[in-house]
Every structure is written in structure tokens, then in C-alpha cells.
What we know:
Elements: H1 16-23, E1 28-34, E2 39-44, E3 49-52, H2 58-61
Amino acid sequence: MCTSVKNTKDIIAKDPIDKLILEKGFRINRIIIEKELDLIAIILNTGKIIESRILYFPCLQKPLRKNWKTGN
Length: 72
């Protein structure tokens, strides 16, 4: 998935997420991860919220190299 291209009119989206980003103009405003609640929430520029369980994203279950809140 590539969202950093300036001219997206020439790009044909291949998966549903690319279609939303490239063809519909959706953008992610914020990502919230609550490990204790097993919750990931993605807030889009349209005001819609996509929620899912962290369980479905194995790479998010591993400890992060750096704690975002404390910087350690």
C-alpha cells in the first residue's frame, strides 16, 4: 500500500484499503491502541471510526521497541 504518491489519479487500487485511500480520499487522523481492552481504533478524516481487536494483528501483540508515552 502506497499513500505517499502525489498524483493518485493514475494509480489503480488493488485492495479495499487502497480503494478507500486512493479513490475515496479517506485519511487516517488518529490510531488508538488500548492493549488492556484488546482494542485498536482508527479515526478517519470522515469522522468514521474503525474498531478491531488487537488479537487480529499479531505484529501489534509484540512489545514495542520504544514506549510512546514514556519514551523508554
